Amino acid sequence: IPQLSSHTLAALQEFYLEQQQREGMKTSQGFNQYSIGSIEEDWQLSQFWYSDETASCLANEAVVAAGKGGRIACVSAPSVYQKLKEQDGKDFSVCILEYDRRFSVYGEEFIFYDYNHPLNLPENLLPRSFDIVIADPPYLSEECLQKTAQTIKYLTKGKILLCTGAIMEEQAAKHLGVKICKFIPKHSRNLANEFRCYVNYASGLD
């Protein structure tokens, strides 16, 4: 019978203990359902949450870009959605397009989204109805970016904020006409691939 080494077993036990502690925090009083990490990353779905600072920066940029009463769509970018919801009372509306149905806890603002079917969207999601679309395609492949780009172009009135790997710069320009920003986004866990932001408007990220 295969057995785990003592080191691996200890690491696994530590992971489960951390998970239990996080679950305990969630059930304790004052838990914020919109805080980053309230829904665990699922690496099998290629989920990597932004750091708190990065999510705040991107959320603030989206609010400014959308303008007063603006509409913001977060495509596969739940960390930004959560930060936007923490700004409760601000004059904007936001929705989250996401494959992971755990985010359906956010009610009517959640829209199930599979990038493999980029235009399979609810009828009430009208074309060009969002002032800005923030997107973070789950995979660093041209196929994923190209399909996500179809969704972005359908939803946006014009402004696009794309977050993806630095290696996707050429494809991002090709499919969405976006340019790389000086701002370097960070994740709560370090990624092996260099990550960047891209926009097609004069942003505060340069």
TrEMBL record:
Q: Which residues form a coiled coil?
A: none
Q: Which domain of life is it from?
A: Eukaryota
- InterPro entries annotated for this entry? DNA_methylase_N6_adenine_CS, Efm5/EEF1AKMT1, Mlase_EEF1AKMT1/ZCCHC4, SAM-dependent_MTases_sf
The terms under GO molecular function for this entry are:
nucleic acid binding; protein-lysine N-methyltransferase activity
Q: Name one GO cellular component term.
A: cytoplasm
Q: Which UniProt keywords apply?
A: Cytoplasm, Methyltransferase, Transferase
Q: Quote the HAMAP family the UniProt record gives.
A: Methyltr_EFM5
The name this protein carries in UniProt is EFMT1 methyltransferase
Q: Which organism is it from?
A: Burhinus bistriatus
